[in-house]
Amino acid sequence: MVHNPTMATARRQRFVRATLAWLLGATLVLTLLSSLSYELVFVVSLIGLLVVVELTAPFRVTPTWRSRLKWLIAAGLAVFGYIVIRRILEILPPGCSEWPTGSPRVGRSRSSSSSLSPSRSR
User: Looking at residue 106, what is its pLDDT?
Assistant: First the structure.
């Protein structure tokens, strides 16, 4: 199979056009629904990027520019994880989102925890 740089450029342009169309369409829909926020635009754009990457993936040979997309996707998923954790912490009651300090639990003394362990009688 002969490498055709024109065909590779056309595929890259198709990928960029599809991604931009998704981004603009998602922003327009969120604006029409009065739900425009940075988080929603980011999440919907990430979903669109993942869909476009999968729908335009070549079957045999992966071009170099496509292999670099994994870093962009990894960064997007990391930001998405941060958004999800932040949203979960907003939903939880005020005392639940604090990290444990290592002190014994309320209502349990050290002696009561040792009585729960199975005893060996021989």
Answer: 57
Q: Please enumerate in sequence order all residues whose Cβ is within 8 A of that of 97, keeping only pairs 6 or more positions apart, or say none.
A: 89
Residue 111 domain flag: no
Model pLDDT, residue 56: 84
Instruction: Decide if 51 is inside a domain.
Output: yes
| Spatial separation of the C-alpha atoms in residues 14 and 8, rounded to whole Å | 10
Residue at 107 is within a domain: no
Q: Which residues contact 42 (CB under 8 A, 6 or more apart)?
A: 76, 79, 80, 83
* Of the candidates 43, 53, 68, the residue with the CA atom closest to the CA atom of residue 14: 53
Residue 38, in any domain of the structure: yes
Tally of domains within the chain: 1
Give CA separation, 73 vs 9, 33, 53, 106, in Å. Answer: 21, 27, 10, 43
pTM: 0.66
**What domain range is 79 assigned to?**
5-95
Residue 67 binned pLDDT confidence (cut-offs 50, 70, 90): confident
